[in-house]
Amino acid sequence: MNKRIKAAGGIVIKADKILFIHKNGRWDLPKGKMEHGVNKKNTAIIEIKEETGLPGNQLSILKKLIPTHHHKQIDGKIIEKKTYWYLVEFKGEFSAPLIPDQREGITECRWFSFDELVFVLEESHERIRYLVDFCLNMPFYKKYKQ
Known about the structure:
Layout (H helix, E strand, L loop, with lengths): L2 E12 L2 E7 L2 E3 L2 E3 L6 H13 L6 E6 L3 E7 L2 E14 L15 E8 L3 H6 L3 H11 L2 H7 L1
Parallel strand pairs: 1-7
Antiparallel strand pairs: 1-2, 1-4, 2-3, 2-8, 5-7, 6-7
């Protein structure tokens, strides 16, 4: 029986930019493992706050997105990871300091404009490319950006 991990995270947006974290040599989105007794939405906000340094009270969940699944091997065991994703708006200013959680292997947090996404997504996991593409093509998101 494979071990299963549940996690939650977000595509954090502000105006025409998306926040990415650089972790283990790749651009990724902030996310983390769900702790017992903490729901998916709260986990997403907590993890975004911890991994990027953004104030949690300035993060607002706009919409639930599709979950992603992947398998990885840890200590010879196959782990199935299911991540629940949310579209999250940062209501603060771009000048808010971004503080990468170096204990998690995060070396940088950076806002990228839509024009820069093609380069960022080249250095991301396929599931992240899929999720961002899904989000950008949602009718809700298109309406939100107008």
